[in-house]
Each structure stands twice: as C-alpha cells, then as structure tokens.
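User: My advisor, Dr. K., asked me to get a structural model of this assembly before our group meeting. I'm new to this, so sorry if the format is off. These are the inputs:
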Amino acid sequence: MAPPQPATVVPDVDESATLGADKPEARKTRKTEQPRRRRSWVGWRFVAPFLVVFALVFLAPIVYSIYLSFFQNRLVGGNSFVGLDNYGEVLTDPQFWSSVGRVSLFLVVQVPVMLFLALLVALAVDSGRLYGRNFFRLAVFLPYAVPAVVATLMWGFMYGTRFGLVGNINEAFGITLPDPLSPEWVLTAIGNIVTWEFIGYNMLIFYSALQVIPRSLYESAEIDGASQLRIITSIKLPALRGALMIATIFSIIGSFQLFNEPAILQKIAPNAITTDFTPNLYAYTLSFSGQQYNNSATVAIVMGVITMIVAYLVQLRGMRKDG
Amino acid sequence: MTAPTGTRTTGTRPARLRTVRPRVAPLRPAGRTSKPRRSVLLTVLTGIVVLYSLVPLLWLVINATKTQPSLLSSFGLWFDGDFALWDNIQRTLTYNDGIFVRWLSNTLFYVVLGAGGATLLSAVGGYGLAKFNFPGKRGVFAVVIGAVAVPGTALAVPTFLMFSQMGLTNTPWAVVIPSLISPFGLYLMWTFAAEAIPDELLEAARLDGAGEFRIFFRVCLPLLAPGLVTVLLFTSVATWNNYFLPLIMLKDPDWYPLTVGLNAWNAQAITAGGDVVFNLVITGSLLTIVPLIAAFLLLQRYWQSGLAAGGVKG
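Assistant: The format is fine. Below is the predicted structure of the whole assembly, which you can bring to the meeting.
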C-alpha cells in the first residue's frame, strides 16, 4: 500500500534515526514476558490516529492519481483504460519539458545562492563576533513568517517600473534598471522572492547544527594554531553536512513544486509568466482551466518521480563525500 | 496593537502557552567558555543581509500609511504627507461588508483546528514511535519519511479530485483535514520525546498502575512542552500561510482564508474596471503578518530551543 519510491529515498536517515530512537528500549531486558507483549501493541494505539489521517491525505491521493493516470475521459466513449498513453503524452509534451527546464534552471542557480548566503549568516552568528547576535538571527528569520502571498504581492509592488521601488530608483538616479517583470528577468525576480523568504529558515537549520558542536573542539584547534578559516573548513563545515543535506533536499522539493510566487505574479505580468511556467502551474491549468484531470494527475506523478530521483541522487552524492 | 482582531490572535495563544514555561526549562545550547572578539566588519557585512530581510517589511509598514493616490505618487521607502494608517485599517476591516474580518476568522478557525490537530497527532504519534516497540514500526517510519519527499503541491490536485468525489470541496473540512498531517512535526516530536522522557519515569508510572494514555497525558505531555510549542508554531505558520490548498478547494469567498482573499483583492484591482484598492491590499497584508511575527518574537525561546534539541542534529 505504501508508494514504493518514497521508502527508498532516504534510507540512511531511516536507519540512523530509528536506531537512535530505539536504543534505550532495545538494550533493556524485560523481567516479565507479559508486559512486553502488551506494550508492543499499545504503541500502535498511539501511532494509529496519525496514520489514519495520513492514509487519507497522503496515500489515498497518490493511489487515486495513479489510477487516474491510466484512464482517459473522452467526450465520446466516456472513461476508458488507456494504459501508459497518458505518460507517453506527457513525456513527449514540449510544454511540460520547458516547464521542467525552467524549474531546473531555477534549482541550480537559486538554491546554491540561497544556501550559501544562509550558511554565511549562520557562521557569522555562530562565531560570536557580531554585535547584537540575537537581533541578527531574528531579523533574518522574520521573512519566514510572511505568507508567500504577501511576500509576492509586496515584491510585486516594489518591482513595478512605473510607481514601484524600481520606478522610484530609475527616476531618482535617471537610470533604467531592467524591468524585473519582463520575460527575460521574471525568473530572477521570482528567485529573489524565494531567496528572501527562505534564507532565514535555512540559516536556522545550519545554526542549530553549529550549536551542537562542542566548544572545546575550537579551543584545542586554536591551541594547535589553527586559523578561523581552518576551523570553519575542518570542523564546522564537516559537522554541517547532515544539515546541508536536509536543507538541499527540502530546497529541491521546493523548487520543483514552485507555484505560489509565479501564480500570483502572473496577474501583474501576464506576458512574462505563461500558464505552463512551472510543472505545478501547468498541472493546475490542465485541471482547472482545461478539465483534463487525467493529464494533470499524470504530470503530478511524473514530477513526483523526477523530484524523488533528483533528491535521491543528491543524497547519494552527499554520502559519497563521507568517504 | 494595530487592529482589534489582530491583538486577539496574538494575545490569547501565547498567553496560554506561556503558563507552561516555568515547569520545563527549555534546553539551551552549550554555553561558550571563552568570548571571541567582536568584529565591526563582520557585523556590517552580515548587516547587509539583515537589510535585505527587513527593507521589504519596512516598505510594507510605510506604504500601509498611505492613501491610494499617494501610494502611486510618493517615494516608496518614505512616508507621505498625511498619515492614513488608521483610516486604511478601518477601511480594510469594513470594505465589502467586512469580508476581511470574515477571512480573518476563517483563518483562525483553520489554524486552531488544523495546526492544533496536527500538533496533537504529531505528539501522540511521535511519543508512540519513541517509547514503544511494536511490529511494523520501521515500515511506519519509512513511509512517513518518504512522504516528506513527495511534493505537497503535487498531491494537491489529486486530493482535490478525491475530495470532490467525496463531496468535501468548498467546505472548510477540505482545508482542515489535509492540514492535520505534518511529517516534519511527527519527526520532531519523535526525536524530542526520545530525549525528553526518561524510560524510568514510564516504568515507575506503570508500576503505580496508571494506564498508558493517562501516563501520556498526565506525565509525558508536560515534559514535551517545548517541542509542542515548536510544532504548534510551525504548523500554525504553515496553515496561516497556506495558499494553494484553499485556492483549489474553495469557491465561495465566504470560506476564503486571508491569503486567498488578499490575492482576490489584488486581482480585482488589476482587472480593468475593478475597484482599485491597492492601499487595502497593502494594509491587509500588514494585518495578516502582524500576528505571526508577534508569535515568533514572543515564543522565540521555545522554538529556538525546540528546533535545536529535536529538529536537526545533522
């Protein structure tokens, strides 16, 4: 009943966390047999409520969309089984692939920039060399509390060349900045909004991981004459590998399912953002403008599989670096 | 604060949560032994990122004080002659028969049921996974962790199709039910419960003859408080900020949350012939984020320690 792909995506996280959580139990020897057996089923009573709702909102839609992807509803002939026809159609659809290309480009440019900035801020805050370090940590995190809708509306206003902030700057300095809402620049403009929203969140992930490093390590490194740069590359960055992995995988998922920002900007920049700008926007358009539910479900599944493959490959690569 | 309704949100929830503070001291990261020298240069450089983060919010605050005409005629990052904030707030709350207030109460409803329910399910489930051995536990973990990798928005369209078969679309339940599941929350509560609840405590309570659920609610739940606040805060933000799900599930503006409503106002202002209410969109946006920012500021000790203790240890 479980989707096969998800289970294999993060096998190593699975292992370590389960072992970690289990350790105290597994090592303990039970004096009586009866309570142990009773306990084993009591656990289910706690987990069951979550799993029931989980099955309804996660597993059932996956199963349902797999079912939909094998059928086609036509005006003549009604609902009929078409095998892999929908998949063939999606995989040869140039609109689909151009949207995948766009989010891939977004992924390879925006995610590294965002994570790099987040990493720099986390290292700076953790170094203890800032004046007012708590203020810095909070201020950078605040945009995370702003809904994507508000963030996009706000930046959309500022992007305006006529009466937005970009327009103000053009007027004040007598220059012409490129229009962020033009077809050439709109992907960058969206990248900026997403970066703004999530720098703080990623910074917090890195910062939490840095805080776990025992301070005594730095002291002994300093006694050995290691420079700050050396401490960063030899102690801090290796300790951040797990956090970097989590942040990267979340960002990959986030990039592939990009929807809110382009969907909202579309109203202001209809020429720059087409209805197939991202795969999700395309699936949305197919469903709600075209009533092509079967194709829409197929796009969703293909995107889910692509996301998992990419996340898995990135994870493999990250593990190889472990050496 | 600004709006009467806004203060209500920020007032009640944190206050209720704060009563648990004295009972459990939040876990703090290991203290520093030696203090490094402060650096002006590093502060200034990091300050650039802080400016980047705060300037748009400053823009929002400044422009919420402007009237519709001066919004278009004055410089974006400074105040204009007349200070119209209170007038804007009043108009936002009353425009279109006070639909904004309706959206605000819808949002609160979704957050209380959705995020509250998600936190409860995560806490109970996470505790079950952390403290019990049961057949199929590894399978449960694999499925839930795998689900984190499934794009949430990719699920939204199939969920819509399924819910419309079940007759749930265009009802509040279509928004509440999917909000009840937070794999991240489950994971966080699991790691948190594994550390915060000593097995000896459970043994002792069992020897005293207490039932399992009684033990959980009486003994363990207070120990989980910092983790609970963290999960509640993050699921609240997720529900409060949710846009895609309500957008596809709801047709009737009377059930819209703030996010979908604000975007509808914006779309109306752009459409030719529509009522141009950019000042209300901006003021409404400000009113939408004030409760969340206040919650994050008031509860920072909790979510920062909760994340550090349970969330991401690398």
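One thing worth pointing out at the meeting: Chain B touches chain A through 118 residues (CB under 8 Å).

User: Perfect, thanks a lot.
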